[in-house]
Specification:
Oligomer: heterodimer
CATH architecture of one domain in chain B: 3-Layer(aba) Sandwich
Number of strands of chain A: 8
Number of helices of chain A: 13
Largest sheet of chain A: 7 strands, parallel
CATH class of one domain in chain B: Alpha Beta
Largest interface: A-B, 36 and 36 residues
Distance between the termini of chain B: 13 Å
Helix content of chain B: 40-55%
CATH class of the largest domain in chain A: Alpha Beta
């Protein structure tokens, strides 16, 4: 573990990829290294890019990385793609649209499988972001699985959320209905060359609340990410949002929300794991008894809780009131 | 500690080096390996040796699969192996697929490419080979 951190600090190019792999599978050596590195984190601008599949997320991420490099910022990209629910395997293809970045040592790209997690992220996304942050990347772009109208937690992990839309994915009302706009700090209408782009931008602008003085005013920006047109303005908006977060004090709140989500998520996962382990042999019979009306559901719940080490029957005694 | 998984998912980079634009085989193989439980990173066409090595490094893959149909394997493979070694990835398992004539296969293996999967190879064969030969990792 100390080795891994020393290698990271020396700039050994294999250290960060290795650390990410270890952290992704919650290997004890990786988790120990992350624990030691954690105090260094919290500095990077973590930018989430989300939107419907096909709106141009990968292409925008690629173009944003180019804009960042033109401004001499090092940039890390975490690109999340779905896992197969059947095999657990995945085809991670986001690098295809980032090909021209492969040769640049100032760009680090890592593809991650969502491993069945809904909401567009991967189970280890927060921990992996910490690693990239600790490695000193000032800008981290987080590309989510194309989210539709699903639950979304990119807004918790990222400090700045870009929601990408494109004309032709239903009218602007669909975008408003989807509920995804609310989490956007920056709205991007991509494929600006297509018919309907300007109208979509107008609809989006019209749907936004007018900010109170001192509040962030969500910009609606037109891009053609494939050619790079309009993308430097998006990077400017990202940097401006970062300054607003710092000046308004909103940053403390965002870090708190992210920390809270990460801790409670970790607790839930661990409880689930213990529950699975404790009931592995007995659950079938309990469920059969409930289904056959031999046991009431509530009794089964209490019996399972009573069998969990450390949770005992006390929890149900303290309920009510 | 709490939850380290005993079997880890193997990560495979599938790369198309050189100038041939035929990636059907590479995509079919990517899907086949996904269905066999691998995480496959597919990088698209026209990869230089340096791009392949950089992607293999950043993605921390266990296996690099090279798909080639242009006939340039004898020129490209040594440069790819050299780029991988230069990136400190000499221990990564490298395999090849596509159209590599029987006559070249001994020379290709000599370069450090562990296996050549030509037309007719099954996903099961490839998956089995990768699981058996991927470098094991201490933590």
């Amino acid at each position: 573990m100390a080795d891994l951190i020393a290698q990271l600090d020396e700039g050994n190019p294999r250290a960060l990829p290795r650390l990410l792999s270890l952290v992704e599978r919650r290997d004890p050596a990786g988790m120990a290294a992350l624990a030691a590195l954690y105090p260094r984190t919290g500095k990077a601008a973590v930018v989430g890019i989300t939107g419907a599949p096909g709106a141009g997320k990968s292409t925008l991420v690629n173009a944003l990385a180019h804009a960042a490099r033109a401004a001499e910022m090092r940039v890390a990209i975490l690109a999340i793609d779905p896992s197969s629910p059947v095999s657990g395997g995945a085809v991670l293809g986001d690098r295809i649209r980032m090909m021209d970045l492969h040769a640049d040592p100032g760009v680090f790209i890592r593809s991650v499988a969502s491993k069945g997690r809904t909401g567009g992220l991967a189970p280890a996304a927060a921990a992996m972001v910490h690693c990239l942050d600790a490695a000193g990347y000032p800008l981290i772009l987080l590309e989510t699985v194309g989210a539709g109208q699903d639950s979304i937690d990119i807004d918790v992990l990222a400090r700045t959320v870009i929601v990408v839309q494109a004309p032709g994915f239903g009218d602007g009302v669909q975008a408003i209905k989807a509920g995804i706009l609310e989490i956007g700090d920056i709205l991007v209408v991509n494929k600006a060359d297509l018919p309907g782009a300007r109208e979509l931008a107008r609809t989006l602008r019209g749907s936004l609340d007018h900010p109170e003085p001192g509040e962030w005013e969500v910009p609606v920006l037109l891009t053609d990410a494939a050619s790079g047109e309009g993308v430097p303005a998006v990077l400017d908006a990202v940097l401006q949002h970062g300054r607003w977060l710092a000046q308004s004090g909103e940053i403390a709140q965002r870090l708190r929300v992210a920390a809270s989500a990460e801790v409670l998520d970790g607790v839930r996962n661990e409880l689930q794991r213990r529950l699975n382990a404790a009931t592995a042999g007995s659950l079938d019979q309990v469920i059969s008894d409930v289904a056959a009306r031999r046991t009431p559901p509530e009794d089964a719940v209490n019996a399972i809780l009573a069998s969990l080490p450390g949770l005992g029957g006390a929890a149900s005694d303290q309920r009510g009131g | 500690m709490s939850t380290s998984t005993p079997t880890r998912t193997l990560r495979v980079l599938i790369a198309k080096p050189g100038l041939d634009g035929h990636d059907r085989g590479a995509k079919v193989m990517a899907r086949g390996l996904r269905d066999a439980g691998f995480e496959v990173i597919y990088t698209g066409l026209f990869q230089t040796p340096e791009m392949i090595a950089s992607a293999a490094l950043q993605e921390d893959v266990d296996v690099v699969g090279l798909s080639i149909l242009s006939g340039a394997h004898m020129a490209l493979f040594p440069r790819i192996m050299e780029a991988l070694r230069a990136a400190g990835l000499g221990d990564v398992l490298v395999v090849a697929g596509g159209t590599i004539p029987e006559a070249d296969q001994a020379a290709v293996r000599e370069m450090g490419i562990a296996a050549v999967f030509g037309p007719g190879s099954t996903f099961a064969d490839v998956a089995e080979f990768l699981r058996t030969h991927a470098p094991s990792r201490a933590a």
